[in-house]
Amino acid sequence: MITENIIITDYTPQYKQAFKDLNEEWISKYFVMEEADYKSLDNPENYILEKGGYIVMVLYNNEPVGTCALIKMDDNKYDFELAKMAVSPNIQGKGIGKRLMQAVIEKAKSKGAKWLYLESNTILTPAITLYEKSGFVRVKRASTPYERCNIQMELEL
């Protein structure tokens, strides 16, 4: 587990390319980039931030190595969708994902959120394990914009 030289910070425009690259890397490794991916990754300011969402970045030795977004949801139950979580493959397995998840959950709580929602795929075993260890439980919702989604989860804060 890495504990030194880690900074968890809010997104700023200087991290735009890293936000896209970190996510495109894992998505392209396991799946195909979809229209919904390009919407959020090409323009995170308009698609996520200006709509009331947040993006958290993880820096290791001042280099972006992880990210996660909270996308504001227009939903009766869920406040945010936890989305676009990525940790560089070069640093996976060192506790960065766990710290990132804790930071994102704290960010959601600080904004008054009561419920988080996420969509994923069960082939991403380390991610699903992290979500479950963080308290997310499986749910079934009617629709998703992603072809790759085969699991939906929620967390009551």
Automatic annotation (TrEMBL):
CDD domains: NAT_SF
Keywords: Transferase
Keyword Oxidoreductase: no
Keyword match Transferase: yes
Domain named N-acetyltransferase: residues: 6-157
Molecular function (Gene Ontology), one example: N-acetyltransferase activity
PANTHER family the UniProt entry points to: GNAT FAMILY N-ACETYLTRANSFERASE, LD18367P
Stated name of the protein: GNAT family N-acetyltransferase
